[in-house]
Amino acid sequence: MCGVMKKHSNSIFLLTLCLIVIQYQGVFGQTVPEYRIKASQILNGNDEAIGFYNPSRIVAIGEYLIIIDDANDDQVLVFDIKSHKFINAIGKIGRGPGEFLDPWNIFISKTESQEKFCIYGLRLRKISCFDLENVVKKSSHLPLYSVMLGKEIGMPLRINGMPTAKEFIITGIFPESYRFLLADSSGNVTRRSDKVDHQKEKEPLNVFQHAYTVVPVSNLEGTKIALGYFYSNLIEIYSSGDGTMLTSIRGIGDHDFYKPLFSTRKTPYGLTMAQGGDTRLAYIDINAGENYIYALYSGRRRKDKGSGQSNIVHVVSWDGELKSVLHLDTDVRDCDVSSLNGRKKLFCINNSRVNPSILTYEIADLKDN
Description:
The N terminus is likely disordered. By secondary structure, this protein is mainly beta. It has a domain of 94 residues: Thrombin, subunit H, CATH 2.40.10. The chain is built from two helices and 30 strands. Helix content is 4%, strand content 49%.
């Protein structure tokens, strides 16, 4: 399927879109479709009217893209997808209301009456949630609410929202061997996953949990949670209700299943996980659409060029079955899946030093996507 789209401005380059279907030998030897997709460049960071320099995280809400720019005083930038225009910037470095220290990730939090996006600042362990309409209309730059996560939770590393309640999925380094916690808008833990059996491991619990860092996402009903492992090519799917693991899928693609490669290092702050050049990255980002999980897979070693980026997306069902593999035409750092005008798309960050940009990939017409 090919279509030619026109070039409109310096910030928009809509390229020829071609989908080439080949067969992919996936996990357990099954054959699944593989799609090679060319992208449209929506937002060009070099355009003075746009002006982002090192985009790191992205979410799409309705007609808007929200981006963290690590090089622009850690600001959060809002863009209109249809008009390709910059709308607003919120936040600055600081400890006050609407300010951030080290924004680590951004996610959507929905309720029946409001669409919100939330930012997790790692250094202050603070979640700040903003009303999208207020930000778009520039009626308020202050968050609706902020949550300071207590030390009893441990060290949260990645946080995502739950679609059916004002709750957060938290993964990270915990005092006990849970894979994830669910917390409410006051920061109180409401549910936990099953504990991992750590007794047989020789590493201290904090080092073990760091090595088995996971990126979480919920299905749209809020009944299941998928975890993509950052240093191991493993995806696990859990029940959000009782925290039990339902299924797992491992060793997808060109690599046999591998565990995290690391050592334990003593520092002035205690024992920590140490990585070497041969440490291989796995799932660097994970998202959920209506029916499937979209997991951005690196498979590259730390010493390889662009290990923190990838052009491979594994599409997995919520039953733990690999459905297809997407090969994007360039490396990307972070993605979000969303529907615009009834068309399902991937919005991804390419943070090239020369030409940082936001790309879109049409996936609505692909089978099993």
